[in-house]
Design goal:
GO terms for molecular function: ATP binding; ATP hydrolysis activity. This is Polyamine ABC transporter ATP-binding protein. Keywords: ATP-binding, Nucleotide-binding, Transport. Pfam families: ABC_tran. By secondary structure, the chain is α/β, with parallel strands linked by helices. It has a domain of 147 residues: Rossmann fold, CATH 3.40.50.300. Helices cover 35% and strands 21% of the residues. It is built from nine helices and ten strands. It has a six-stranded mixed sheet. It has a four-stranded antiparallel sheet with strand order 2-1-4-5, covered by helices on one side. Helix 6 links the parallel strand 7 and strand 8. Helix 3 runs parallel beside helix 5 and helix 6 runs parallel beside helix 7. Bound molecules: adenosine-5'-triphosphate. Adenosine-5'-triphosphate binds next to helix 1. The site of adenosine-5'-triphosphate has 10 residues, from helix 1.
Length: 269
């Protein structure tokens, strides 16, 4: 497990420090500090409404907090320098839960769009890159298909191809397996791990699919909806057996929680 105190991982990867997130007066999560190591998969876990998506939105710069900070390879995300911030945003790829492919464009055009908007590559180079990215996600030769012709799993793959169009260092996935059958979900897990290894991607995934969590996570954090902070951090396979807090063990073992467990004192990780 990578922690802030690791001497061999000073500022590589993503560092979240003392982050506090609000919606108006309502506190979502507080005191979040963790490190996402380079070329690893980090899973954000917790029950519905605990703040997983809100944390992801902060990490991809769609929301900002006045308290705490987030840095990528030592570079602060919330810098005042607009050019620096834009450059950093380009190193971040995102697959949203809805996938959000442009329905009126072919798969190939969907993947090409970020390159047309943000690079100076010519048409032939973009065509090659699109073919390469689609092959990477297992959709070789599917350029001319329309999104409506794709299965749920293929849509996710096309969404990932678009998310990696600009060769990001970081890939954020919001509920990647949502709506997929177990077999398709398993194949997607394999793809995510392959991309981590082949592209040295740092992947941050929000998911509450247990099989997926146990398969892909190198490290994880559990956001508690009652304490409004992280009450567990580490390899989810180990947390399932040895987490200090009953709610974390119950979540990871899909067990009902006895009423009294909700009242146990929780001291953070
Ligand atoms: N735009 C918003 N305005 C006000 N409150 C919000 C807004 N979006 C989310 N919230 C609240 O913030 C809290 C965290 O929501 P969030 O969507 O981050 O949780 P989550 O863990 O991702 O949930 P789920 O697993 O159901 O997607 C919830 O209590 C939610 O009601």
């Amino acid at each position: 497990m990578a922690r802030l105190s690791d001497t061999n991982a000073p500022d590589r990867g993503i560092v979240v420090r003392d982050l506090r997130m609000h919606f108006g007066e309502t506190l979502v999560q507080r005191d979040l500090s963790f490190h996402v190591a380079r070329a690893s998969i980090f899973v954000i876990m917790g029950v519905s409404g605990c703040g997983k998506s809100t944390l992801l939105r902060h990490m991809i710069d769609l929301q900002q907090s006045a308290q705490g900070d987030i840095s990528f390879d030592g570079q602060r995300l919330w810098t005042r320098d607009a050019a620096e911030r834009a450059a950093l945003q380009r190193r971040i790829g995102v697959l949203f839960q809805s996938t959000a492919l442009w329905s009126s464009m072919t798969v190939g055009d969907n993947v090409a769009l970020p390159m047309q908007l943000h690079t100076r590559l010519g048409a032939a180079e973009i065509r090659d890159q699109v073919a390469f990215k689609l092959a990477l996600v297992g959709l070789a030769g599917q350029e001319s298909r329309m999104p409506s012709e794709l299965s749920g799993g293929m849509k996710k793959r096309a969404g990932i191809a678009r998310a990696i169009a600009l060769d990001p260092d970081y890939l954020f996935l919001d509920e990647p397996s949502a709506g997929l059958d177990p077999m398709t979900s398993q194949r997607l897990d394999t793809l995510i791990m392959r991309l981590r290894d082949a592209l040295s991607l740092s992947v941050v995934a929000v998911t509450h699919e247990l099989p997926s969590i146990f398969t892909i996570a190198d490290d994880s954090i559990y956001l508690d909806d009652e304490q409004r902070t992280a009450i567990a951090h580490g390899d989810p396979r180990e947390l399932a057996e040895r987490a200090e807090h009953a709610r974390v063990r119950a979540f990871l073992n899909r067990e009902p929680l006895a009423e009294r467990d909700d009242e146990e004192p929780i001291h953070g990780n």
